[in-house]
Protein: ASCH domain-containing protein
Amino acid sequence: MEMYPKKTCSIDRLVTHPKLVEAAKTGIKTQQRRDGVYGWPGETFTLDGREFVMTDLVRQRLGDLTDRDARAEGFPDLETYKGLLIRMHPGMEWNPDSLIWVHSFAALADA
Structure:
């Protein structure tokens, strides 16, 4: 088993915004980027009664994000995703060298 760092938050806090929960339930959202680790591959979590499994956990530079990544987050493009993050986190600067954790997941029936 690959070694991952200690969790910084519980997996049940991975996807919390109602619109993003709905996007995950419909299969539009398949990833969540966070500053810390919320879950490990193989771990399950539930969103509104639907069970999901973490399929992957990798590090990524903000500067390496693409429109495809933004769509996996449930957004139409990178600019929309980037704008929302900056608005949600006052004082945040988009530093292309900042590292984040990419939590990939799928509905358990789809995994």
About this structure: The domain at 11-107 is CATH 3.10.400.10 (Sulfate adenylyltransferase). The first helix runs from residue 18 to 25.
